[in-house]
Amino acid sequence: MNKVTPIDSEMLARFEQGYEARPALQVMSNAISRTALPDAAFVPAAAAKLQMDFSVLVKTNNITNQKQSGRCWMFSTLNVLRQRVIEKCKLEDFSISPTYLAFYDKLEKANLFFENIIHFADQELDDRETFTLMGNPLPDGGQWDMAISLIKKYGVVPSWVMPETVHSTGTAKYLPILTRKMREDALELRALVRAGKDPAARREEMLAEIYNALRILYGQPPKTFDFEYTDTDKVYHCDRGLTPKSFLEKYVGNDFDDYVVIISSPIHEINRTYCQPFMGDVVEDNMFWLNLSQEELEDLTIRQLQAGEGVMFSCDCHPDGDRANGYWDPDCFQYGEVLGGLTFHMTKAERLLTRDSTMNHCMMFCGVNLEENGTANRWKIENSWGDASGQKGYFIGSEKWFKANVYQVTVRKSLLSDAQRALLDQEPLPMKLWDPLA
Known about the structure:
With 438 residues, the protein is α+β, with helices and mostly antiparallel strands. Helix content is 39%, strand content 16%. It contains 16 helices and 14 strands. The strands form two sheets. Strands 1, 4, 5, 6, 7, 8, 9, 10, 11, 12, 13 and 14 form a twelve-stranded mixed β-sheet that branches. Strands 2-3 form a two-stranded antiparallel sheet. β2 (225-230) and β3 form a beta hairpin. The chain is globular and about 75 Å long. The protein starts with 8 loop residues before the first helix and ends in an 8-residue tail after the last strand.
């Protein structure tokens, strides 16, 4: 074992002498004693450069609000798709029910968890795959592929057909209860498999219990409904007896195979496809990504915006953000300077590998401002935190923030070059359950 280095009185004395030799540090301590660190570190001159004006904009509508739930991936996907209904039906606004999809998302994730537990039943509980699975049996989060798997399988409905409940908007209150039950179920399934018994019947009983709980929490998913609306010409319409799938086909479309998820990861092989075989929601589908360079990811994003369509993306939303005023920009904050001269030099790859950064939020790019040479300098973002945050629900991301924190976008395959499109034919490499981008 390596020799330990304890903090002793001599070391503390050196620290104290070093602090006292810099009077400005005490002045800073006094200055921020009644000011939150982000406010003290904020740089107004940098924020002033992030104007809410953009050379390329796509049409958006009222801001949505995921509230106290981790459904950003679902909201951002639906924010892209709802524009189709708005344009087709000439509506002033429209939203697709996230509650309907969230019900099936939780049910499908429970089934996937049981599937994975059975697959790894021969492992010990502290083996890495099983330990990782047990850490979060019923996660709130997700990505584009997961939302599309649900939409393809179950269709969609307007928001008023299956409205939000206190539980769909505040998942932290019930998820620990279901998570505890699923961990208990996992132990029983493992025991059955390890004893050489078929777990199928017991697994279905466990899923039925989760289904019952979700019905109580979310309500009953509709089988049929009437689509009533008045268009911008003040003409009333009523389409009766629709199913969630027929509504999808008629009003949203089912061209999701025309899209591909692009990632830009410096810790994975470039120009390679990847999958995540033990993550997602619907067990019969798999997440599929193409890893391209940062420049290619950005170029594809710009071209889809120029074509008039928003871009769902995944990022690390924690660094360098001002939630109240709607800025994401490293130059807007001087945390290191405020805290005595700290410096930060990790690369994007190093941040991923040290778990300093990960994908933790999904939103939609709805605009970009381009310089004369065609390069971007700021991005308009439609968020799902309600219209009280940011600038009436919209945020501005600087180009520096984009390069440092955006990891994934979803774009139409038609925008890819022939060389990029050819890469899609590769057999995807599986990512590990604990991959930083998982």
